Structure formats: structure tokens, C-alpha cells
User: Fold these one by one.
Assistant:
Number 1:
Amino acid sequence: MKRVILAAAGLFLGAGTAQAATCEESFVKKGNPVTGLRFVATTTVPNMSMASAVGQLNGIVAAKGYAILAAEPAGGAMLIEPPATGKSRPFPIEIAADAAGTVRMEAKLRGGMAIPDAAAKAEMCGILAQLKGGKAGEALAAKGLGATSAPGAPVRMSVLRFSQDITGQADKNNAAAQLRYQNRAFTLYGPVAYIGPVGDTYRVEWKLLSNVLTDIVPGRASAGFNVNCLLAKGQGVYALQLKPGKHVELTGTFDRLDYGMSLVWLKDCRPVK
């Protein structure tokens, strides 16, 4: 009988000390490149509330340049997107945290997109590995919840491609497009359509020149919004020497999208030398 009791105690002890699967062990790949891949990463952090998880993750992904479309601490939910590179369309990453300290992160790639499994696992589990429980986590959450995404290096592309990209995205969801581009820096190039004063500065509007090849690119609108760049202070001499048709390359920060007016505005624009 004594041996039975000791054996039973050993079983209970083993069950109590069993370790939950790590993020890397629980990582799952679903779907296929044609219809869209799905990557799912999960972790559990003891003594971490839903609000703490969201606050911490907000700070973590903001520092990495992710676009934060929604962060809801009370519901333990987030919707983020990887930082723009100019080479691929954005895709959503949905995050859900529960009261037990479990966080599930699911990346939903668009059809035709591919990311190596190892790279996806390293990125997603690397983010989740930074979560902490208890007072340390609460302190990080309080600091992280107010963080905004790092702008990163300017993304360079033709003004036509930029216009087509943002127009296509705004046609699908204008609110998401505004958040996706918020505080992002871009270097755009193309011919000038108009130069004119706005308050104590000047605006440059590009001319959108498309052709049969640019109009058939999947996921892009054939007729894009007009793009305006408000020049930074001290650029008056530069502005007054421009003329329609001149090719210019300017770096500026996304300001706003006037969907009803079919206009995109960048601010603090400076010529690339």
C-alpha cells in the first residue's frame, strides 16, 4: 500500500511540474500559397492579464515598426500589420489574449504570398517571448500602450505606384488605410503637375502617368488618387524654380487621405539630393 501511495504521489508531482509547450513547439502552419498561408504562434505567461498582454505587445510591435490598426486592452485583442517595404502588400496579424495569460498570434498571408516557416516562427515567437507576467508586465504594459509605430526608413517608389496602392486599399477599407500609412515616410518620384502656395509653404502635386502595363498589376487601382506633397519650411527657393513636367523626387511623411476628394497628402517634404 505504501508503494502505491508513493507511486500515486509521484504521478501527481510529475503532472504538476510538466512544462507547457513552448511557442516554437506549438507553432503551426496552415493553408497554402495559392489561397493564403496561415501561421499561428501561441504562448502562456503566468499572472498576465489581457490588458497587460495588449499593452506590452503594443510597445513591442510599435518599436519594430508594425502598423497597429487596433489595440483593445479590455477585450485582449489586437490587429497589426508588418512594416511596409514597398515590395509586398500588407497582411493582417490577429492577436487574442485570454484571462489565463495565453496569447495567440495568427498571421494571415494573402494568396500568392510566401514566407519561410523558420522566418515566420522566429519573428512571431520572438515577439511573444518578450511578454512578462506580474508587476514587471504591468509596468511594461503601462509604458507600451501609449507607444506609436516607429516610422522606419522611407519607402521609395514611383508616385503612380504609391497612388495605386493606397487607392486600392482605401477602396476596400478607408479607415484601415489611414491607420496603415499613419506616420510612414515615403520617397516618391514622378513628373510635376502643379505647384502652388498653401499658407506659408507650397504644395507639389504629381502628374500620374499610367500605361497598359501599370494598369494590370493585381491589387492596384487603375486610376489612383492625386498625391500632394506639402513642402517643409525653408523650401520656398526650391518650389519657385519648379515647373509642370519637371521630374522631382521628394521625401515626406503621410499626413492624411481625403477619400471623398480623391486626394492623398504628405507633409514636411524635402527634395532628395
Number 2:
Amino acid sequence: MHVATILLIVLLAVVAVLLGVIAFVALTIWWTFKPILDALGKIALALDLGRFLYRRKRRQVYRGSWHHE
């Protein structure tokens, strides 16, 4: 009975250490790629904003040229 209890405690300790290692690796990967993903998100937002403003500007020029005549 005591051997089983000791083995269970050792097994739980091994599982806890493995979960800690997995969490450390996952956080390291996340902290590495988070700034890259943030920068790509800002670039995508800037491109979308530029497309929107370009289309809006083209539409205003188009309306002002001959559409109202």
C-alpha cells in the first residue's frame, strides 16, 4: 500500500514537471511569434485602410467628373 502511494506521488510529480515543460515551451513560442503576428496584423490593417480610402477617392472623382451632368 505504501509503495503504491509513493508510486502515485512520483507519477503525479512527473506529470506536473511535464506539464510545466510543455507550458514553458508553449509560452516561449507564443512570446516569440506574438510581435510578428502583431506587426502582420498592423500591415494588413494599413493595407485594408489604404484600399478603402483609394476606392472612396476614386468613387468621388468618378461622381464628380460626368455622373452629375
